[in-house]
């Protein structure tokens, strides 16, 4: 039963991530800025990383990008979403593994948001064969820092709120 319970829990985490991303797409202020988003699904990633390990969080984040692109965005947006999620997940995992005692979920979230935007702008620069795209990264950097702080605080709340293992 432990295996089935665990799989069900992580499937629910993927579903919550997808639902948060879908909700985020409806926010008019965020969607009016190209590439700008809150990254609410990052709350689930951070929660799972702190409570159940980096590998589980990484898999949930990657699965979310597949499901969201299949349901809502399409192939081109999938490339950006996947590349951003992949790079930001790796950065957050590395920070978690090396600076867990010195950096809070808020700091890790800010770095994740920042590198998510950097990865997407880099992919755009490669596709367009133009480095002028990096000028837009200035705007995205500000949005990343703010959204990283917001999602980091939310993740920290859930991490602190849930004591022990939910799956017991």
How would you describe this protein?
By secondary structure, the protein is mostly helical. It is built from seven helices and no strands. The chain has helices at residues 2-25, 28-31, 41-52, 54-73, 75-99, 105-128, 137-161. The longest helix has 25 residues, at 75-99. It is globular and about 50 Å long.
What structural category characterises the helix and strand content?
A: mainly alpha
* Largest β-sheet summary: none
Strand percentage lies at: under 5%
Distance between the termini: 11 Å
Write the H/E string, N to C: HHHHHHH
How many helical stretches? Answer: 7
Indicate the overall shape. globular
- Estimated helix fraction: over 70%
Mean pLDDT: 87
Oligomer, anyone? Answer: single chain
Q: Give me the Rg, rounded.
A: 16 Å
Unreliable parts:
none
- The number of E-state strands comes to 0
Main attributes of the structure:
about 80% helix; about 170 residues; single chain; mainly alpha
Task: Give a quick summary of the entry.
Helix content is about 80%, strand content about 0%.
Topology:
Blueprint: H1 2-25, H2 28-31, H3 41-52, H4 54-73, H5 75-99, H6 105-128, H7 137-161
Helix pairs in contact: 1-3, 1-4, 3-4, 3-7, 4-5, 5-6, 6-7
């Amino acid at each position: 039963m432990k295996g089935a319970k665990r799989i069900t829990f992580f499937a629910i985490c993927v579903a919550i991530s997808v639902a948060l991303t879908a909700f985020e797409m409806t926010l008019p202020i965020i969607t009016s800025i190209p590439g700008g988003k809150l990254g609410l699904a990052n709350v689930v990633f951070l929660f799972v990383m702190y409570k159940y390990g980096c590998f589980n969080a990484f898999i949930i984040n990657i699965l979310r990008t597949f499901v969201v692109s299949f349901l809502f965005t399409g192939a081109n947006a999938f490339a950006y979403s996947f590349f951003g999620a992949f790079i930001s997940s790796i950065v957050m995992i590395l920070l978690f593994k090396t600076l867990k005692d010195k950096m809070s979920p808020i700091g890790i979230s800010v770095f994740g948001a920042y590198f998510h935007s950097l990865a997407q702008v880099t992919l755009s620069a490669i596709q367009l064969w133009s480095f002028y795209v990096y000028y837009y990264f200035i705007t995205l950097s500000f949005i990343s820092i703010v959204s990283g702080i917001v999602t980091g605080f939310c993740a920290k709340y859930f991490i602190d709120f849930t004591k022990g293992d939910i799956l017991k």
